[in-house]
Design a protein that fits this description.
With about 45 residues, the protein is of the alpha+beta class. It is built from 2 helices and 2 strands; from the N terminus they run E-H-E-H. The chain has one domain.
Length: about 45
């Protein structure tokens, strides 16, 4: 399925979203800051 980038500064919400997307069959790339999100977007190439 899709590779999804999730960005959130709240760890509990990020964990919940990662878990749910994983259960739906998506590959998840997570970041907690804007800078980290840009870096992950460039290196991980989410859909």
């Amino acid at each position: 399925m899709a590779r999804i980038l999730i960005v959130d500064d709240e760890p509990a919400l990020l964990t919940l979203l990662q878990y749910r997307m994983d259960k739906l069959g998506h590959a998840v790339v997570a970041a907690t800051t804007g800078a980290e999100a840009v870096e992950r977007f460039q290196t991980e190439k989410p859909d």
